[in-house]
Write a structure and sequence with these properties.
With 320 residues, the protein is an alpha/beta fold. The chain is 45% helix and 16% strand.
């Protein structure tokens, strides 16, 4: 039987969480995941557009069944966005990177659960000390921003460190029910998935980017910082971004100093490529689990498939 601590906190059936991918995880995706028994998160990300956030929260419909995720230092610079979300009373807020304490305290005062994503055991302990109700242990296989420790050793180490206090979700390189069953075996209560839901019908992603995920595999991804630089984002060196390899990444990863001198030319070119759906140049921000994604599906079907696959794996193991 699946652990119940996480599902009891957010009142969902399946411990399957859709990551709050910035500009990808909108209200329709979050609502569809939660309606299927998982837990959906709207991606607050870097959004500087309050109107976008308001619209996506409206599309999520019942905020008591979904959550909202923020990059912590971006949210700290936009307290009105945090206040807007707290006023809508989501079931949970997820905080990734940076110090969670100020926003976590506000969420706790509002009676909203706090999920903190971490990349090390030390970060997990710190997050729990600052009020995290749930920890996401994110391995380097994950798409988007992350650090250096792999999922397989990180998850049980985090469980050993804080699992007696709070439930732990595994993230990074997981896209199906086998990954969920493996997370249970490592001591986690469930999983948080980004790449698999990037290729959901409801994801706010160009169709060509979704097809890239379906046709590529995990070996076609790489970590670097050129994609952040070209988009005008400044991250600590300890956090790189995993994307599919494309012409842009091959040209500029490892040559960020050269790219910085060419931004006046390269930034408009990159923006035009993203607008046109040219993903030989614009980034497809997914992780090594791309090799496990073979189709674009409604988010609800993804949740139900993963839940059934995990149940089947556990049943098979039980009779061996």
């Amino acid at each position: 039987m699946a652990p119940r601590r996480f599902t009891d906190i957010v009142h969902c059936r399946h411990p399957i969480v859709a990551a709050p991918m910035g500009a990808v995880s909108g209200g329709r995706l979050a609502a569809a995941v939660s309606a299927a028994g998982g837990f959906g998160l709207v991606g607050g990300g870097y959004t500087r557009d309050r109107a976008w956030l308001e619209r996506e929260l409206d599309l999520a419909r019942d905020m008591a069944k979904v959550g909202v995720g923020f990059i912590t230092w971006s949210a700290a610079a936009q307290p009105d966005h945090v206040d807007l979300v707290l006023e809508r009373r989501p079931k949970a807020i997820m905080l990734s990177f940076g110090d969670p304490a100020p926003i976590a305290a506000k969420a706790q005062r509002a009676g909203i659960a706090v999920i903190c994503q971490v990349q090390t055991v030390a970060m997990a302990r710190d997050a729990v000390s600052k009020g995290a109700d749930v920890i996401v242990a994110q391995g380097t296989e994950a798409g988007g921003h992350g650090a250096a420790c792999a999922t397989l050793p990180l998850v049980p180490a985090v469980v050993d460190a804080v699992g007696d206090k709070v439930p732990v979700l595994a993230a990074g390189g997981i896209a199906d029910g086998r990954g969920l069953a493996a997370a249970w075996a490592l001591g986690a209560d469930g999983v948080l998935l980004g790449t698999r839901f990037y290729a959901a019908d409801e994801a706010l992603v160009h169709p060509a980017a979704k097809q890239k995920v379906v046709t590529e595999d995990g070996a076609a991804t790489v970590r670097g910082s050129a994609v952040d630089l070209i988009r005008g984002y400044h991250w600590p060196a300890s956090f790189t971004i995993r994307t599919l390899v494309n012409d842009f990444v091959q040209r500029w990863n490892g040559r960020e100093d050269d790219l910085a001198r060419e931004l006046a030319t390269e930034m408009p070119r990159y923006a035009a490529a993203a607008e046109a759906g040219d993903f030989d140049h614009a980034a497809v921000i997914v992780g090594e689990a791309a090799g496990l994604v073979h189709d674009v599906l409604p988010a609800g079907d993804i949740v139900r498939r993963i839940a059934q696959e995990a149940a089947d794996v556990v049943a098979r193991l039980a009779v061996r």
